[in-house]
Amino acid sequence: MKKILLIDDETLMLDLLSLYLTPRGYECIKMTSAYKAVQYLGAESVDLVLLDVMMPEMDGWDTCQEMREIGDIPIIMLTARSEKIDIVKGLNMGADDYISKPFDEEELIARIEAVLRRKNGPSSIIVFYGLLLNEESFEVSYQGHFVSVTPKEFSLLSLLLKNRNKVFTREHLLTSIWGYAVTTEDRTIDSHVRNLREKLRKSGFPVDDYLTTVWGLGYKWMDKDL
Questions:
Q1: Of 87, 95, 156, 202, which one is least surrounded by beta carbons within 10 A?
Q2: Alpha-carbon span 15 to 13, nearest angstrom
């Protein structure tokens, strides 16, 4: 199920959008605060953002810029302003499309599906509190700064982030990442975890708060919001 983040300071508009999208198989996350929406995207992944322009605390243009610093998330601007200069401004800020209110339900769905077709491929971007994994380029960054990791370290971090709060035994990690068991399994996994921790620590990411050792079992990535 595709997840769409709806951001509008009017709850009636959020309810209307959800009414249109939910029967089409979309999971809708509704937020009236742009600040909270940006924080949410720092920890959670969504497939697309529907973003209102005219909001009191932070307008849609500034919000779009903030979201672009997090990752390449598909964004559709939704607003009553239809002047050409506003449309160009939204697109220059990084929006993927722009829909004016009042809108037609079928046009809204068609534009969402078109953006998703253009933007969503088999690869994806994983975001966790400023830590970003690009599974297409196999790159890791924290708050915009590149973190050099090996392919095995990348696979390890990706597996843990995709399965937060799940305990992985060393044997399971070996099978999932290496594809076979080795005689020095403890040293193999422990060495990669130690190196990954050190690299993330040096980048400024508080890795020790999340990548934890489960004594006698293995490792897990804790999501403290759960």
A1: 202
A2: 5
Residue 5 bridge partners (DSSP): 29, 49
Across 77-113, b (16+ Cβ under 10 Å) vs e yields bbbebeeeebbebbeebbbbbbbeeeeeeeebeebbe
Alpha-carbon 120 to chain mean position: 13
The single-letter code of the amino acid at 62 is D
Indicate if the pLDDT at residue 134 is higher than 90.
Answer: no
Q: In the CATH hierarchy, which fold is given to the domain comprising 134-221?
A: Arc Repressor Mutant, subunit A (1.10.10)
The CATH number that domain 3-119 falls under is: 3.40.50.2300
> Which of the two residues, 46 and 107, has the higher pLDDT score?
46
Residue that the structure tokens 């829909």 belong to:
99
What is the C-alpha to C-alpha distance for residues 48 and 66, in angstroms, rounded to an integer? 15
Compute the distance between CA of residue 161 and CA of residue 133 in angstroms, rounded to an integer: 9
